Amino acid sequence: MARKILITGAAGFIGQAIVKALLDEEGNELVLADVIEPPIPSGVRYPQNAKSFKLDLVDSSANVVSSDLDSAILLHGIMSSGAEANFDLGYLINVDATRALLLNLAKVRPGVRVLYASSEAVYGTPVPKKGVTERDITTPEMSYGCQKVICETLINDLTRRGMINGFSLRFPTISVRPGTPSAAISSFLSGIIREPMNGQVCVVPLRDRAWRHWMSSPKTLASNLMVALTLGKDALPPHRRMVNMPGFAVTVQDMLDALAEVGGKDKLQYVKEEDTPAIHSTLYSWADDFDNSLALSLGMKQDRSFVQSVKDYVETLEAAKK
């Protein structure tokens, strides 16, 4: 089935993962946008089916919106600690740019399917100890989470009014990410594997090995985004378009065990556990147990093993060398 899909934030890690998946399928025409020109992933089957644009979405989103779009995947944004450190920049990128793009999409291509990358950072204390669902009240404790809630509300309203077919997909933390550490507070959740596997030190900002976090592998997230690209408007009520994307709970000890199993026990020497009290309130405010029944009912899937996530990461690195 031929589809024309706009992807913003396409130069980022998740953007590149979904671009690769879509360019390995015949018939997809991609419009890639970011603040740097998004590269075409190497080794894809149909690289000629993508066009890349370097632009600022606040001022120039109209340049990548056309009346023949089937879907738009909105992945652009400044991450949690970056948005917290720079209030104005966080709202400019995470809210103003998103609003400008959404209004352009609604004007030029009414009813277009929009997948918005939200976050489980929309939840803060108090949250249920187990089984957090889309029905639980969002009480974000960082600017990043507040910005996501604002955009989720706008997507609800635009969908309710029939202007778009929007879905706010609340991503778990994605691990293991390749490349360099991001500006997210949760960056150590990939660094605990990535850096030691590369012979580099990763600092874990707490000494509690029972602390756990809700995560998804990049491979599973990309697969679930492909499912979301097939969802019709009637998949959810028109005024409630949020979906908690599937994840699973992983403790610090689980991560260390996976590192030792896949990378070797010698890699554990590169993990340094150092309490950082300044961010403990944030780390312990995050929900760590979700009921993903809604996402699973829509055809999405869930990871079962962090060891497998690490093995997938290693396979990705090996494939990149070929």
Q: Would you write up a description of this structure?
A:
There is one protein chain. The chain is 37% helix and 17% strand. It has helices at residues 13-23, 57-60, 80-85, 87-108, 143-160, 188-197, 218-228, 252-263, 280-283, 293-297, 306-321, and strands at residues 3-8, 28-34, 50-54, 71-74, 113-119, 165-171, 173-174, 202-204, 212-216, 242-244, 248-251, 271-273. The strands form three sheets. It has a seven-stranded parallel β-sheet, sandwiched between helices. The chain has a three-stranded mixed β-sheet with strand order 7-9-11. A two-stranded parallel sheet has the order 8-12. The two termini are 30 Å apart.
Poorly predicted ranges (pLDDT <50, ≥5 residues)?
A: none
Number of strands: 12
Largest sheet: 7 strands, parallel
Give the count of helical stretches.
Answer: 11
Morphology call? globular
Q: Specify the structural class.
A: alpha/beta
**Strand arrangement across the biggest beta sheet:** 3-2-1-4-5-6-10
Q: Approximately what portion of the residues adopt beta-strand conformation?
A: 15-25%
Q: Level of helix content?
A: 25-40%
The value of Rg in angstroms is 19 Å
Summarize model confidence as the mean pLDDT: 95
> Terminal Cα separation, in Å?
30 Å
Order of helices and strands: EHEEHEHHEHEEHEEHEEHEHHH
